[in-house]
Write a structure and sequence with these properties.
The chain is mainly beta. Strands 1-3-4-5-6-7-8-9 form an eight-stranded antiparallel barrel. Strands 10-13-11-12 form a four-stranded mixed beta sheet. Helices cover about 15% and strands about 50% of the residues. The longest helix is centred in the last third of the chain and has 21 residues. It is rod-shaped and about 165 Å long. It has four helices and 13 strands.
Length: about 375
Amino acid sequence: MMKNSLKIALLASALPFGVMASDEGMSPWYVGGGVGINNYEPACDQKTMKSCGEDSPYAWDVFAGYLFNDYFGVELGYRDLGRAEWTDYANNLNDVGAKGTTLGLVAFWPFASKWSLSAEAGAMNYLVYNNKQWGSKYYSDSGIAPFVGAGIGYNFTDNLKLSAKYRRYENLDEEMWNTLEMESNYWGLELSYRFGSKAAPAVVAPVVVAPVDSDNDGVNDNLDKCPATPADHKVDAYGCTVYKDDVTTHTLGSLRFANNSSVINPSSYESVEKLANYMNQHPGSTVEVGGHASNVGNPDYNMKLSEKRANAAAKLLVEKYGISAERVTAKGYGITRPVMDGNTAEAHAANRRVEAVVTGSEKVPVLK
């Protein structure tokens, strides 16, 4: 009764739970077989044994397994553990062996890419059978024997695996005649084949996104740091307008002087004020005040006179209208740049003058 209860409990605990193995494309089912050697442990110390002969230790097994996942599964198999000889006190030769179906749980621990360790526990529904006196007498008994095991395996492929196994069987007993109480140690090699194949990784076609250049400046939006630049502007690699220094020259009129004088007539202050206002509106600009003279008298004297006239206008810009002295220069040109030729009073009056040449420096966009 106790053996039947143990049998039911062990078989029920090993039923599959319906969880599929996790390797995509691989089946959870596998089959295999193994060969090895087995050593029974009566050790000739039982009351029925007079002496022991040699074991015939060659053992084999076949099995099928189901993987719940990569780490846990269940195996159903059939195992023949070989035979052992002994002589009883009636000098009868006994040739005994154990075989039967097995059901067990197996745990796996993959490591180092293709290697794995395993551990197992289960039960063997065994048959102990004794061919006595070279088969002239025969008796047998059956029962449930627990076993545990460990192993190491190597995957040649995703499907094919070779494992080295050790198992220990307990309580391989013959209770009908009460002649045997055996244990067993098994060492062997097993080759297993798992069905299915790993699914090839899905090839995802790259999504090609057409480049977008919203402001049509030649730089795509994903690189454009200056969106909405005018279409006629030249841009850099980041889509920003390229600027240059714009240098322009402006002549803002002439200041007239009396003959042989460097004094600016107050009536001309309005022209100087306009010049100052322009420079204040263009803070990057500078001015050269050029003094000129009429072609009357000594040229050297006229050159000095033109310098005085230029200095007078520059001084007025700085002191009266607040233009920085660093932005103002003065230079005399004497009679070298007349605006009217001739020796008339009209020509002489036109040439006695000061001209302001303004250079404005500011950033302007470079156009395509």
